Amino acid sequence: MNSIEEAFHAKVDGLGGRTFVAHFSQATEWHSTRHQHACPQLIVLTGGAASVQTAAGRHVLLPDRCLYLPMNTTHSMDTAGPVRGFAACLGDSVNQRLPTDISAFNGSRLLLEILRRLSDLTNAPEQSVPEANLIRVLLDEIQRSTDQPLEMQMPIDRRLREMANNILQHLGENRTLEEWAAATGISKRTILRRFKEETGLPVGQWVQHARVFSAATQLRKGVSVKHAASSVGYDSVSSFIKSFTRIMGVTPGSLRPSSSNKKDD
Fold this sequence. Notes:
Oligomer: single chain
Structural class: alpha+beta
Radius of gyration: 20 Å
């Protein structure tokens, strides 16, 4: 945990029930261990990508994607390189108007602007009328947002969860649906239907997201683009770059440390 994370956690834990919004306008990395806060949280990235681990699974955050965590949700966060965004701790007075489950949605321009304005106001000694008004609008935006499946939601069915965990542990393998049907004892057709129902993504897309994020973590450590692509099952570097850029919004090379940003072997 770096000094920015420590300062944020100390601030949140000492709020005394008041809403607080932190704006991380300067790109920073974030690698927190499992913890929880006595307040609901809203995490929104405006740049970069991150993985938030909860009991429900691993949730990938991309720019303008919002993740809401109810009060006392145990979680950890790991970014794929430097990120920018907002982290909001929502005060005691608003708890009854908020969802009781983890949820994700795309942030509107209004929601992002509200967070930006609140970040300028919530450092004041006492809550002002403009701040209270903005908080009410923020709650309305959260309630109105269409809940969308989390990108890395894990399946509920035990056999499908075991399948998903196996995929995460062996991302370089390319097993067919027929092989998974034989391994799980579930028909191919049922796997296709149930996996999408329980995770919000088709099997192939879920695997692609998992591979890209794993590769992003490696790239951040200085691994070459070629090696990262191969380690997560891509035979073609160009195909990997295309998929990575589409999902992450940045090229694989841009995540590598500047000292490692040289032509791959």
